[in-house]
Structure formats: structure tokens, C-alpha cells
Design a protein that fits this description.
Layout lengths: L9 H11 L29 E3 L13 E3 L1 H17 L4 E3 L2 H10 L5 E3 L25 H4 L6 E4 L5 H9 L4 E3 L7 H15 L2 H13 L10 E6 L2 E2 L6 H9 L2 E2 L11 H6 L4 E5 L7 H5 L3 H6 L5 E4 L10 H13 L1
Parallel strand pairs: 3-4, 3-5, 5-6, 7-9, 7-10, 10-11
Antiparallel strand pairs: 1-2, 7-8
Amino acid sequence: ESEIQPVENFIQHAIHYANKYSSYGIIKLQHDGDARSGERLFQIDDEPYALIYGDINQYNYGCSLYLIRKDVAKKLTALFLPFTTQASEQFVSLTLCSDRLLIELAEPSQIAAQSPYSKNPLMMLNKINTDKPVLEPQLTALLPYLDKTILINETFYPKLVAELKKLGVKIIPINDSPQTPDELFTLILDLGKQLGNEQKAADLVTKLKSQNFHLNRPLTDTLILSETGVVESYYPQYPVLLNLLGLTPLKTPLTAQNFSLEKVILSQPNVLISLTDKQGYNAQAELLQHPMLQDFFKNQPLVSIPMKYTYCFDHGVWQGAEKIYEQLK
């Protein structure tokens, strides 16, 4: 085989094949002993059908790089098909919110890799990645995982998504589209179906629907502050969190533009919810500990939960509501 001379544009053929049939993976052939089959793997008139890759610089010095004839590739495909169909589909998550859903719904053997967030206990919920590889959302990092199904936010990484789709990679979009609990439940059930874990997803939705954290307080105007200032109320997790507790947002909401200690006191909130990891060193974080604010709430409810419960609109919101309910009930 080392005597086979490839056509001049064989590299372009190989790249074309790799882009078109990336799901085939990469196969490297190696001869045992001196015996040769006598069958030429590639002939000048053949259309490239599969790529066997080693060190391209060593092409004419042994079994390093071949373009395989169609008939040989078909035989190999038929030979390995029973093994590939038996393998369970695996998934790669590239964002925090998909990390949290995947680790909740998938079996450990189904998870091939996750984002670096998956190892951070300040960002994950009650389950954390302890043994899976972590990947940055970059094509070079994903090259060994192109046969996996990728969970990704298409809005965050449009260029990467376009590149992956061009390579034929299967993608499950986990975008910020759900705005209501029912839309979130639909997403969870759909993801459970794609993972083959419909029952686990259904059990999670049933659990979330059955939980009751209603506080039955007569005065419900609530201000939510985080280490980064006033939370953006247009994110669905915040109104859903308040609704689960039977609380309501301020009638005149504070914004980042009019945020100050004086404005907080004048807004007269009945409940203050603080989202903090005690990691911030900015004016907003310091304000949460200001003596005037502490004095104002000395006879009123002031509760605190970690920020991780509201990083995503997912089951973490219900976990956060439970933490607040335990402090206020």
C-alpha cells in the first residue's frame, strides 16, 4: 500500500469526506506481520469514501494515511454496524443551564463531557460533575466529540452552532426560550424523551407541580437584591420565584439606574430577598450589609439564599423557593 500514489487533490477529497461523513469517525488500519491482502485500498479513479488517518507526513512510509475505496468502506461499515448501534447515545453540555438539566435527567453513562461550570458548587445545584471531562465551547475542543449529541445555547454561540451543523453534528438547543412554568415543563419532558429517560423527566415535572411554598402573608411587596444589584425582573425565574411563595414585586420597581440605599428604603418593601454567595466586592454587595438597611428590616422579613438557585430558569427556582419558605414560614 505504501507504493500507492494518491491523486493530486486527495487532501481536498479527504476534507470533503470528513465534513460530509463526520459521524463515521476515524479508522486506522494496521497490518499484522508481513502478509498483505493484495487489495489496493485506493485507486486513482475511485471516489474517496472514508479516511484512515495517521501522520500525513509519513504517508509513503507505511500504514499512515489512506483513502479507502467505496466497496472496502461499505464492508467495514457493515462489519462495525452491530457494535455502533448497540452503543448508547452520549451527550455533551456546553453551558451552565444545560449542565444542570443534563446531570439531573441523564444517566451518568450518557454524559460524555460538560462545561467548566459543571464542577463549580456555587453554580450547580445538588448534583455536580465529579468525573466527566470539561470542555470549552470551541470547535477544537469538540473535535473528539463530533459523534456525540451537543447541548448548547444557540443564542450564546451562533458561530459555533453553525460550524457544528455544517459538520453534521446533532444538536439539542437549550436556549432561554421558556418564560413560564408550563413552557419549562415542556422543555424538561422533551429533553427527557431525547435522552430516553421519559420517566425521570416526568417524575421531576410531577414533583415541581406538586410542591407548595405559598406563605399566605398579608403584606407581599418584595424586593430581590443580588450581589450585582437589583435583579432584572424580565428574567422569568424571578417572577416565578415570587409567585411560588405568594409574594409580589414592588409596585414601583427599582432599576439599575435609580438604585441606591435611599431608593431601597423609600420603596418600603415588606420582604427583602438577598441573593448572595458572599463573593462580591462591589457597592451593591456592601449595601446588603449596610446598618441602615439592616435596621430597617430588623422587624421585617429579610432572607438570603445562594445565587445559584436563580442563575437559570430551571428546577433550581423551586429549590430556592423551598429555602426561602423555610426561613419565612
